[in-house]
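Researcher: Here's my situation. A collaborator sent me these components and asked whether they could plausibly form a single complex. I don't have experimental data yet, so a predicted model of the whole assembly would be a useful starting point for our discussion.
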Amino acid sequence: MTTEAATQQVMTTADGTPLKVSLAKAQRRLKIRALLLVAPLLLFILITFFVPVFDMLFRSVENQIVPEVLENTAPLLLKWDDRDGELPPEEVFAAAKEDFVKGAKAKTILRVGSRMNYEQSGFSSLFRKTARRAKNFESPYKEAFIKADRKWGDLDTWRILKRESGAFTISYYLAAMDLSYGPSGDITMKPKGEAIYLTLFWRTLKLSFLITILCLALAYPISYLMSTLPLKTSNLLMILVLLPFWTSLLVRTTAWIALLQQEGVINDLLVYFGLITDDNRLAMIHNATGTVVAMTHILLPFMVLPLFSVMKTIPPTYMRAAKNLGATPTVAFIRVYFPNTVSGIGAGGILVFIISIGYYITPALVGGVDGTLISNFIAYHMSTSLNWGLAAALGVLLLGIVLVLYYFYDKIVGVDNMKFG
Amino acid sequence: MTESDTAFVRFSEVQKSYDGETLVVKNLNLDISRGEFVTMLGPSGSGKTTCLMMLAGFETATHGEIYLDGQGINKVAPHRRNIGMVFQNYALFPHMTVSENLAFPLEVRKQPKNEIRERVDRALDMVRLGGFGNRRPAQLSGGQQQRVALARALVFEPKLVLLDEPLGALDKNLREEMQYELKSIHDSLGLTMVFVTHDQQEALTMSDRIAVFDDGVIQQIDSPSTLYEEPRNAFVAYFIGENNRFVGTIKELSDNECSVEVDGGYIIKAKPVNVGNVGDKTTLSLRPERVSINPEAGSMPNMLDAKVLQLIYLGDHIRTRVAVGQNEDFVVKIPNSQEHSQLSKGQTVKVGWSSDDCRALDA
């Protein structure tokens, strides 16, 4: 028996298939199995999440439409030197005529017009007008263009066209950061009246931070209470906490409108008790206050759940030990209990902050003017103005901000400390 | 207050109820002198941990008063009691290093920094963990965590140290080692220690006195040897050590001896300890090592026929289960010496014991 086993062992090594190879073979099967188990979800996420995200990222710089439709004009414009203050040469106008005729037939030229309209208003109508007349243009084309619309004789029109003739553009990002091209092509801040996005980004960050802090302040005591109560009572409280989850977001938000509006329940009560006069009713909705109140309410469970699950794991003997060692209840809490809940605070805080930074419905309903967030403008550009490039650029910037904050969070608190349960 | 001069810790008529319907601790009176090692021993739910928690201040007595060094402490908050405590699962703070854990009680007492460092180092050396100061509790083994917990309970030099089943989570060898270590720390520091356990072996090894708890009442409080040799009632006899039991009726009763008729009609002569009158029920308790196999005829007042049912070899002794009358759980510990090692299963032998070793207790 033993000699047989020994020879067999020698044979396998002599065979050239040592242990490692067969081990790898055995593990390969396990790996394939694991991959197959993950595959459906992986495919789903790839198709429905990663592909659209990268598509949107691409749209924030993509400018394919201009070189595609103006296929003859664009390369010539790129070669044209605009510094001498002269209009482009006749060959550019000739190429433009050809592109306009073709584009008018294929109905694509108007899309270039609206694309260029983002750069400067007026381009849309200029393109529409010119497209209608282009097929009757006779040489010399320069004069024909200028006759059709005087703007073609303006050097700036051609400069802007030349700037956006490439396949990629940064103009969406400039717009998203309240920057624009000056007359000579240099990048400048937009004038105060036109600048909106930086204010919005700042407000989004500020309100999200405020909402996170409020959620923490409200969730911490209740989570502590739940973690110390017997299971039956804490389950009941947990249901109360989760109840908002089970009602429609829209219903909850409109309920806040009913409560907070000028003729609403809270104002009525305040007036009834004489705390405010009837003509001084508080504006608590359709402004930043409304957004903060409603979103704190909606996001509270996201803070309670991680906090509760972390607190549940802290044995009550920690506090007892601290007191036994001579710490007053306050010191025991600060030095022993609180540090053990940091992981839950981190998890809940990140969760609430990231959700609220991209929140859309509630600020749209109750935000009014100064309670709307950046996501509402992204939505506006997606669905109303149809400026997807700008929407994409705003989204990328938002993503970038979140990643930067996440990086600092990792540096300061440590992501590994985060505990969801 | 002459009484409290002798008693360092005193429970005076202490009662405790959690629900207002049942008493967990029923009228407890207990004096513990300075420097004593007292163990509260009992099955779970007997009220021993509740007593410890009342002493530490985490539970309030429903009735009665607890005195520490002559002062009533019922209204003193736990953090002002200055009592060291080792918790069941050590309760080391996971976010602090070992040194920080030990420094904690000194920091909250606002000790100067260099003195804290000195005392922490000394405490670590005392539990032989010098050099482990920078580790986290999670990086230590169970025994090491246990020693850190002990060091933390001692570092602020309390006069009284409470230990709540501190050795329960350790394996057998480590537990025994820690028992001796604890005992030697107790002896060298002259501390008063109150130890709670449900492990009778642990209690017997370490204590000056053991209070046996059952049903919220101290059944007996005595030195380990007295508890073992002279249990005052059937519960103590059953709970401490191994014990052969007979239930019977008292037929004759004198000061030093009684005759008890047990099931099967046998008459057993026993020492009356805790019995009523003739005709009352009683439980007889007999330690297995006090039983002789095949004693000389007439040398012992009790001699009965027994059939060997089971032999378990335990090295130093052979645990032999025999049937005596209808009692099939009669255990005899036979020392592993030459004259007694040749019993075999099924053999019929005589078992005998003196009437002094057989104690007639409450039914």
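Model: Some features of this prediction you could bring to your collaborator: The CA atoms of residues 275 and 362 of chain B lie 6 Å apart. The interface with chain A takes residues 56-58, 77-85, 87-89, 91, 93-95, 104-105, 108-109, 152, 156 of chain B (CB under 8 Å).
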